[in-house]
Amino acid sequence: MAGIVTEPWSSAENGNASMTAKGSSRELRHGRTAHNMSSSSLRKKSDLRVIQKVPYKGLKDFLTNLQEVILGTKLAILFPAIPAAIICTYCGVSQPWIFGLSMLGLTPLAERVSFLTEQLAFYTGPTLGGLLNATCGNATELIIAILALTNNKVAVVKYSLLGSILSNLLLVLGTSLFCGGIANLRREQRFDRKQADVNFFLLLLGLLCHLLPLLYTYVATEDTPAAVISDMSLVLSRSSSIIMLISYIAYLVFQLWTHRQLFDAQDQEDEYDDDVEEETAVISFWSGFVWLVGMTLVIALLSEYVVATIETASESWNLSVSFISIILLPIVGNAAEHAGAIIFAFKNKLDISLGVALGSATQIGLFVVPLTIIVSWIIGINMDLNFNLLETGSLALSIIITAFTLQDGTSHYMKGLVLLLCYFIIAICFFVDKLPQKQPNGLNMGLQPMNNVVTATGGGVFSS
Amino acid sequence: MGSIVEPWVTAENGNATAKGSNRELRHGRTAHNMSSSSLRKKSDLRLIQKVPCKTLKNILSNFQEVILGTKLTLLFLAIPLAILANSYHYGRPLIFGLSLIGLTPLAERVSFLTEQLAFYTGPTVGGLLNATCGNATELIIAILALANNKVAVVKYSLLGSILSNLLLVLGTSLFCGGIANIRREQRFDRKQADVNFFLLLMGLLCHLLPLLLKYAATGEVSTSLINNMSLNLSRTSSIVMLIAYIAYLIFQLWTHRQLFEAQEDDDDDAYDDEVTVEETPVIGFWSGFAWLVGMTLVIALLSEYVVATIEEASDSWGLSVGFISIILLPIVGNAAEHAGAIIFAFKNKLDISLGVALGSATQISLFVVPLSVIVAWIMGIKMDLNFNILETSSLALAIIITAFTLQDGTSHYMKGLVLLLCYVIIAACFFVDQIPQKQPNGTIVGIQPKNNPGSGFFSA
């Protein structure tokens, strides 16, 4: 789900064989993204002995295909959650169950989607593969956001996207740096900071776009009607979204074309060969494409369940919707690349971990968010970039803390621990936050406070 | 608009670098002067040689050097047009537009004249002269607006100058330089940039605290008390900011001069073609001085027009006064050094571009702003350093983004593009902002919203 487009080896496409002195033929064959490499750590080698016994060739191919795709990951045990969720919906089981099962089912699907995009990248070449990853990498977040928009749940959209950025910046990065630091206690861990820097100033650009609409509400005097402010905020948000998309396209041009050498990870030696063996695609192009479409549809289905049942789940589990959207959903959605980033940090390959986490954060911050705004513009829903004070403040400080932590190009476990603890503090903040957020459509987003102040303030909160 | 980067060693204290050539030892040239000199034309004196009378010849050559010596000469026509328009009471927006156009070449000529005077006065005094007169246009506009009691225009125009230098000038330079030098790695000396940044951050602190005083107050505190506190804090901070600026001048012109000398490049030959290398002054000291005084008076006149007509222009063009002051005025005022910074970035001489942009931002933030507050104090006008939350936050994020972008000492086009897009977003923010700001003297600055919620807006 977190598509980043760092291409650690030179691509065969433009024949830059000069990238590293140790360029082997394997590396020259295709450009592998850090994201794909991290997810590949969750892959299993397919055991094809059972299938070899099947007499029919067509059936054999079909079964091979099935085994590669469905069983080719260590997360395959979570796959049964998908039919379970569908069955529960039809049987009318209580909604919190559907919510939980759908979330569980999304995890392996996200990982499989990244596997499939990697397979397709074998056929399309590195640049196109990078583009594919850049757009489909965060497919889960994008689909959840659009589905929530169509259900007019603007708050869920904002929270889930914000939570994804925070999770990538603090949780994934923090655990990677922490585990990597513990495992490599005696070694100095270095990484190339130029690559991280590009991500950071793009994230700061995104922060500016969130900050200005937020400040409009504070600039207003008492006489200014709320309609004027929200109108201004909307116009500014939509223009900012176009600018953010322009900068994302420039980022892709920068990363995939003009300054590609900046993003080539330092070449590692033999220890790498043990993990990654897939030099050729294991499934054909069209079957991969069909699987990709199919899995995307299943993701859409499960996301539909998630979006529909989130309020009832929040009430029955006694957590606010904001907490579920900001903390729980992204943890589930990012689980696969989270594990991959940790594994690479263990091996002291920090460039890849950083590429995964920061690239994903940039992609969500500068691609998924503005795309959502533009989609809402087309649909006719009023979504702006004002993510409210608490969320924007958390985002600002997490970007600043992470940028500052990574600015010297080295790492140790303290850095990871601090980022991780920052994430916990933010999570606690949203866990404790029981203020109902008033939505434009009057929906109540949080738990009711104990003393029913709400009823005293009148029907304003409950009017829809 | 002046910065005080002196790329070559000065003759004054005789510190010859290993590569010091005669030309460089002769005088200290500031980055600002070098950047503006890219807009200069070599004067063609053949016509004048034919004039028989010697004094007439001198006067004419003097005239040609000063008036016609720049590529922006065409814009000079706007000045008499503006004066005519004012005398005959043409539309006020027209006067505003013409005055803006007329200010552009004047600013460039003032920098040329200060450079000429620096030949006579030596590099240190020349540097000081540049440091004070470099941003003459902004200073004069600020003081005139104060005299007309338009405190909001002062605040907005100064803030807009800082934002324009930090994001627009720097962004376009880095972007164009990055595109032109796409195969090369562009490096610059970050120590020089750093000095500017921590001074800018100090200025930001001085703006932030009066702003926060307003929010720290609970319900019962009266607004007059808060305003009083804010005013006292602002005035004291201004004195501190001026002390910091004087220390910065000492640091830059005297004790750590070597930090500010640009790295010598191999391709100096390429340099000579473009820039008119004036090793000797082309006009006499007193004529230069007289021209400087004269041009400053004309700048004052045009600025008077600008300040007087800004509201009508804003009404008739449909833009808020905030937008015109923050975005349009600085673009016009900075146009000359903007062009120069871009040209130097094309040549991969990033130190000079950075010196121009950052030095100018520091000068406005730590010299012009506190000077305006003190002048207001003398005049009895209540101007404080509270620039309101939207403007202060834009300033804070601009400083943080620029500081972060420049902290590793290299550059590529993405950096320039991001800074540029930040400027566009901030401009869009002020463009969209239709909330009228109520000023202490009750005048309304801003476009009235369509639905008039109450007559409270119109009280003057």
Automatic annotation (TrEMBL), chain A:
Residues 1-39 are annotated as: Disordered. Its main location: membrane. The chain crosses the membrane at residues 75-99, 165-186, 198-219, 239-259, 280-303, 323-346, 358-379, 385-404, 416-435. It is a multi-pass membrane protein. Residues 96-257, 288-431 form the Sodium/calcium exchanger membrane region domain. It is found in: Vacuole membrane. This is Vacuolar cation/proton exchanger. It comes from Camelina sativa (False flax). The gene is LOC104782252.
TrEMBL record, chain B:
InterPro entries: CaH_exchang (IPR004713), CAX-like (IPR004798), NaCa_Exmemb (IPR004837), NCX_ion-bd_dom_sf (IPR044880). Residues 94-254, 288-431 form the Sodium/calcium exchanger membrane region domain. It holds the Pfam family Na_Ca_ex. It is a multi-pass membrane protein. The keyword Lipid metabolism does not apply. Keywords: Antiport, Calcium, Calcium transport, Ion transport, Membrane, Transmembrane, Transmembrane helix, Transport, Vacuole. The chain crosses the membrane at residues 66-83, 90-107, 127-146, 158-182, 197-217, 238-255, 283-307, 319-346, 352-378, 385-406, 412-432. Its main location: membrane. The keyword Membrane applies. Residues 1-21 are annotated as: Disordered. It is found in: Vacuole membrane. PANTHER family: VACUOLAR CALCIUM ION TRANSPORTER, VACUOLAR CATION_PROTON EXCHANGER 3. Belongs to the Ca(2+):cation antiporter (CaCA) (TC 2.A.19) family. Cation/proton exchanger (CAX) subfamily. Vacuolar cation/proton exchanger (CAX). Translocates Ca(2+) and other metal ions into vacuoles using the proton gradient formed by H(+)-ATPase and H(+)-pyrophosphatase. This is Vacuolar cation/proton exchanger. It comes from Camelina sativa (False flax).
